[in-house]
Design a protein that fits this description.
Length: 158
Amino acid sequence: MKTPLLALLLSLPVMAEDLPSIAAMKSAADAFLGSLDDAKRGQATFPFAGDARENFKFTPQTRTGLPFKDMTEAQRAAAGKLLDAALSEKGKLKATQIITLEGVLREMEKKPDYRDPEKYYVSIFGKPGDEKGWGWKFEGHHLALNYTVVGGKEFSVT
């Protein structure tokens, strides 16, 4: 229940300002995929109709996708462009603060494996721009954003 609520809260400022641009999300997804070598692309991509797209949680668990810890700075920047395309400035700030807080809590709680700002994952589902459907997911502890685009004109956020 909390995951959809968090996604909604992060997306509300977007709804109030401007709806995310499907074209911008596609462009950001293409750029992210273009920044990856074959091995990392294989880790980050999944079929649109597969189970991985519907499996998302904000609690600690084993996740699918390409984690920050395996990305170069350029790849992280490309992943950040997905958030830029989908979230308002306020939403992006909140997401960044959640990720940053993991590092603070890691030091305070002395739980290096449990709290890790490098354990945020990016997944792309299907081929960006495919009219039959595609999507992307940004997921980690206390943050799970799942975007699905169908028909090139409508999208859903969870």
